[in-house]
Amino acid sequence: MTTETETSNPRERMIIYAVVAFVVVLLVFIALLLFPYVSSSGEAEAKADQLIAALDEAGARTPAREQITRVLGDDGGAICANPNAALTRATLLSQMVNGAGGPGTRPVVVDDRVVQGELLVLEIYCPEELAEFQQFVGTLETSDVAGE
Question: Is the separation of the CB atoms in 112 and 143 below 8 Å?
Fold first, then answer.
């Protein structure tokens, strides 16, 4: 069994390289046109201002308005996508542990303020999800463990 040697000349290879480069540039251009840019709307800025005021009133650190509008937009972003789903709740609960890895991981009593930020976001951005999430938070064992 023998293998034939390649017989393409430099001109043929240049044509192939040019076609591939053109296709890549065209795909990049199409991707840039189709990429959904997040534009800061008036509604997003108003909700961001509302959230900043609520966080400030609660005594929490407040991020910049641009950060909030970029992350949450006008619909709450990923937080409001499905805050009451099992996976979302499991992710939240996995953050309320003692920090040990593997079999040493144990749930702990967390401070009352741990979920306060998420409650504020839900209240402002997706109030229809708030009642069910408040019921879930009510089942958590919390206390004033961090103090002032």
Answer: yes
Paired residues of 97 in beta bridges: 107
**Radius of gyration (C-alpha) of the chain in whole angstroms:** 26
Sign of dihedral through CA atoms 131, 133, 138, 139? positive
Domain ranges of the chain: 42-143
Alpha-carbon distances of 138 from 113, 126, 132, rounded to whole Å:
13, 19, 10
Q: Considering only CA atoms, which of 137, 144, 107, 105 is closest in space to residue 122?
A: 137
Q: What is the pLDDT of residue 5?
A: 78
Under a CB-based contact definition with an 8 Å cutoff, are residues 84 and 106 in contact?
no
**Rounded to an integer, what distance in angstroms lies between the CA atom of residue 38 and that of residue 59?**
29
- Could you read off the pLDDT of 58-74 as tens digits, one per residue? 988 999 999 999 899 88
> 138 and 89 in contact (C-beta within 8 Å)?
no
